Amino acid sequence: MNPPTWLRGRLGVLLSLGPACAVETLPGVPALLLAPVGLWLLFAAPVLLLRGFTDKVVSTRSGSLLLAAGLAVLLDILVALGVNTVLPPLGVERPLTRLVLASATTLVLLVLGILAPQSPRPLLRGAPLSGARPVAWAAGVALLLSVAGPIRLNNGLGGAVSTTALVVVTALVVLLLLRHARCSPIVLEAGIYAASATLLLLTSLRGWYITGHDIQREYLYFRLTLGGSFWDISAYTDPYNACLSITLLPVSIFRLTGIEDIYVFKAVLPLLFALTPVLVHRAVRNVASPLVALLSAVFFMAFPTFFTDMPFLGRQAIAFLLLACAMLVLTDSRRPLALRRAVFTVLLAGVVLSHYSTIYVIVGTLATAFAVDKVWRLASRPGRAHQHRADRQGRMRTFLTWWTVAVPAVLALLWAGPLTHTGGQLESTLRVVASDLFGSGDARGGSSDTRYSLFGGAGVTPEERLAEYREDTIGYTAADRADGKYLPLDALAKYPTPVAGKENLPLTPVGRALDTVGLSVPALNGVLRQAAALLLQVLVLVGFVIALRGRNSPFAPVRDQITLTVGALAMMGLFTLVPQLSVDYSVLRAFQQGLLFFAPFIAAGALWAVRRAGRRAVPVLCVLVAGLLLDLTGAVPKALGGYPAQLALSNSGPAYDIYYPHAEDRRAAMWLNQRAAGDDLVVQTDRYSFSRLQTLFTVRTQDSVHPALLRSQSYVLLGSTPTRKDEVTVFFRGDLVTYRYPRDLLDTTRNLIYSNEGAVVYR
Question: What is the pTM of this model?
Fold first, then answer.
């Protein structure tokens, strides 16, 4: 008798594991074979084997696959953590090798295949694909351009292809909006994934080396783990090193797939994160119409942090992926509540292992939501005759309970405390927050990103921030300056460091035409950005009010969505009003995280705003969304000029100046590392040159060259931007400030010992 289809599929997966493990353990396997085999073991096979379990947690086919993908990522982290913990006491000093990881992954998958429940549903057979052809064409073109555009820019060519990719993504989103009623869910989700991946890859693939801000340090700790094939938190008790999403997970991907290590960070992690908007769509679709769900995913992607910051935040990208899976579980009420709560908690445990700050914000959001729910119940307590029945129904409608809040909080404290001893940043932040709240601090403002908030105020000017930075540096170097370790202040007075002016793209013909009729293009670009930020916040409030009232609302949120939105907005308010929180955790990243909770309310607000258009409501909505996407992604400023260039579209601009890795900088760093190897002098360089080059330095290095921090005796390396433009950027109190650097000071006090027409070294 032939086994059923689902058993044949499972049997095929199990039978594939032996050959796959053999390929992984053989020497000299070509990368073209190793990559698909490794991806199969790490992601595809776990997803197929987990489907039977995830079918019991969520009710939809796509939801089951998406949840299985998130659990597969968490499983990969846990397998690597397991061998890293168990094997060293048994005498295996290098547990994170290909042989060990492949064997352990295969063994875990075999056990999973035997013990996990089996899915009776076919993977894709019978899934409707209506509307697939135009979506597939647009998605294919967008993904092709997302790779071609960065390659052209990295080779010194123009950004026309990348700009075209943004136009195609916008067209794809508009197509999905116009045809959402005729497209099947799987087609909509495939289109969302293609748009999401395109936006991320346009940024993440910039540069031939690791490009970006936090990703540089993430890559450093990955390399330290990879070098010893062992993750040792005691060797580097740094919060970054405690994020297994950027240490153990990339090591497993690199070992088993053979994908070049920089492209694990530049491609694989962004492509995993690209699932997050799809999860937003699926989670909202559980409780709302297809249009509300689609808009929720689009607004999540359209927020600038998604495609400018998240490609450089691998640890937070994985944390958001797991949090989105948790929201999917929360909104699917057609499965047992106890099981969903348990899986929700497991996913938040994965966030604990992935990123410290994200879980702190989540715990604050959950705690606030739980408190709001309790107050809500007390305020709406029914009459005694119906109290028992109403309370029973209310409990059924509420997902959050005390232990879904307490368990993640306890795990976060344990992980940052006794398990890794990396909670110093949290303790420092809480001390400063207490100082701010009780009036004993220095009353300095928080990050200027708060100016985008409805309640954020005007922020701090660059001149004020730079003056604070200089005052701080002079203050904490006073004693050593008196001992002659730093240059005297009277000598520095001759070399001012004024704030550098903002450098905008030159006006295009269209921009000049607007300028001739009296319309200031730089002012217009600034107004559009500020208006977009305010629009999203207003739509949150409007959507929340109409959903709460239940009148003319395009969706009826479940109780937990309302309380979690209150919690997320409360955290946003806290970040805006308490300066230190906006410094240590970006307000814009907090809003991006909040979109996982309140994106459907923005969608509801947008639909309410266009309701009077009647049959033309969707076309009007398409115009609004298209304008928002084209402006926020940078296509409109690129077409007009008069705005700082963006890294994804140009080989200029502030992000390019401080994040883009240049070959000249790397050559200078390698030369200096050899020169200074036997010397006691420290190497000084600016913060962002150090960030780009930190994996190359083995000598003592200081990441500042501000005149107030220049030592009397040291090497000084100036990277490409300081050398070519005489500009240096510092990051202080949550803000980037660029100032004019006095090269005359170095020419007067030091000797030029190296130059390669891109970077220079003084001694």
Answer: 0.92
